[in-house]
């Protein structure tokens, strides 16, 4: 099977490439990535010549059409994805997440190919901290940021192309991912690399916001199950069921890194910061048989810390740029 992986030099996309090479040897991979600041060609270094890399923009209709014509299936990871950046400048999110997804949809429609669209649980807004409620595939969309609004819009475009034009597409919405190759602007890599560079971790507000954490390999295993067994037009929520407050995450991290649990600093909260995310992943577990391999967040976190310790060459040049950006944002 010939797969196009959009955004395959980004965090989840690059891990999808490595997971596929390890576990699906019959897949032939082409990565399409614009190599914006969040895309890193070094993330694919270990893949060597096993992957065809195309440096290009998902908003380029001629390029996308040619690549889709040569493929069997498109796995669409490419997105602008950092909430703080979307609050500072929404325009790139409009372009990539909406125009880019439209461009891909038109290409798969013209060429009669299948699409799997990767999305986020942030499209649903947030849940109360003191509730047992979870997001489901039928939860109404209520995005809080320009990032989540554009992802919600891209999901709606996919569903409209399925219904109006018969495009063979599936969708998945995942909880927070963690693992190797994650950009240092993101919450966990930022805190890990802060410690590794002599800084204290930073905690927004009081750190009471709760997230569900899923290892990136578990996410990508779920995506492959959807590719193999998922029903066209269906949406699947992916989540480990492991929910933790941001403050608890900081404590877990400091424990793994053998530091006092109060070795961190509070910084001003993000505007419109969502309170809690939690996915009901019953559908993908019962219909497709998915189960997370990483049952212990602490074990997965320790492996992630070791990866960042051992791969300073991959992240160090990006660290100062990311921290300078956070200084401008006051966080």
Specify Rg, calculated over alpha carbons: 19 Å
Note the beta-strand portion: 15-25%
Task: Write the CATH fold name of the domain at 2-182 and 214-241 and 276-294.
Answer: Rossmann fold
CATH 4th-level superfamily of the domain at 2-182 and 214-241 and 276-294: NAD(P)-binding Rossmann-like Domain
Number of strands: 12
* Portion in helices: 40-55%
Overall mean pLDDT score? 96
Which spans have pLDDT < 50 for at least 5 consecutive residues? none
Distance between the ends: 45 Å
Main beta-sheet strand count, sense and barrel state:
7 strands, parallel
SSE arrangement, N to C: EHEEHEHHEHEEHEEHEEHEHHH
Per CATH, the architecture of the domain at 2-182 and 214-241 and 276-294 is: 3-Layer(aba) Sandwich
Strand order of the largest sheet: 3-2-1-4-5-6-10
The tally of helices reads 11
What spatial form do the alpha-carbon principal axes imply? globular
Q: What would your notes on this structure say?
A:
This protein has 331 residues and is of the alpha/beta class. The protein is 43% helix and 17% strand. It has eleven helices and twelve strands. The protein has helices spanning 11-23, 61-69, 83-88, 91-111, 146-165, 187-196, 216-229, 246-256, 282-288, 297-310, 312-329; strands spanning 2-6, 28-33, 51-55, 73-76, 114-120, 169-174, 176-178, 202-204, 210-215, 235-238, 243-245, 265-267. Strand 1 (2-6), helix 1 and strand 2 (28-33) form a beta-alpha-beta unit. Helix 2 (61-69) crosses helix 4. The longest helix is centred in the first third of the chain and has 21 residues, at 91-111. It is globular. The mean pLDDT is 96.
């Amino acid at each position: 099977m010939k797969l196009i992986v959009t955004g395959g030099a980004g965090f989840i996309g690059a891990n999808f490439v490595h997971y596929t090479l390890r576990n699906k040897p019959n897949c032939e991979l082409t990565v399409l990535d614009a190599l914006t600041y969040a895309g890193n060609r070094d993330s694919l270094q270990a893949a060597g010549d096993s992957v065809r890399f195309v440096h290009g923009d998902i908003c380029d209709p001629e390029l996308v059409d040619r690549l889709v014509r040569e493929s069997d299936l498109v796995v669409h990871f490419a997105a602008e994805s950092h909430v703080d950046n979307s609050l500072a400048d929404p325009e790139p999110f409009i372009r990539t997440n909406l125009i880019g997804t439209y461009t891909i949809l038109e290409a798969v429609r013209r060429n009669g190919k299948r699409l799997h669209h990767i999305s986020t649980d942030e499209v649903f807004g947030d849940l109360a901290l003191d509730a047992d409620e979870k997001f489901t595939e039928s939860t109404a969309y209520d995005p809080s940021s320009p990032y989540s609004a554009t992802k919600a819009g891209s999901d709606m475009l996919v569903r409209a192309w399925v219904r109006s034009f018969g495009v063979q597409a599936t969708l998945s919405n995942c909880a927070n991912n963690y693992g190797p190759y994650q950009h240092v602007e993101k919450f966990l890599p930022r805190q890990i690399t802060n410690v590794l560079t002599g800084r204290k971790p930073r905690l927004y507000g009081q750190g009471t916001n709760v997230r569900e954490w899923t290892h990136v390999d578990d996410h990508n295993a779920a995506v492959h199950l959807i590719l193999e067994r998922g029903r066209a037009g269906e949406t699947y929520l992916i989540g480990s069921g492991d929910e933790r407050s941001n403050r608890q995450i900081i404590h877990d991290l400091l424990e793994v890194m053998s530091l006092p649990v109060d070795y961190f600093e509070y910084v001003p909260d993000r505007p419109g910061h969502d309170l809690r995310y939690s996915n009901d992943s019953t559908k993908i577990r019962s219909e497709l048989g998915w189960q997370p391999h990483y049952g212990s967040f602490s074990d997965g976190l320790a492996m992630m810390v070791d990866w960042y310790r051992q791969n300073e060459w991959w992240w160090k040049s990006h660290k100062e740029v990311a921290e300078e950006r956070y200084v401008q944002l006051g966080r």
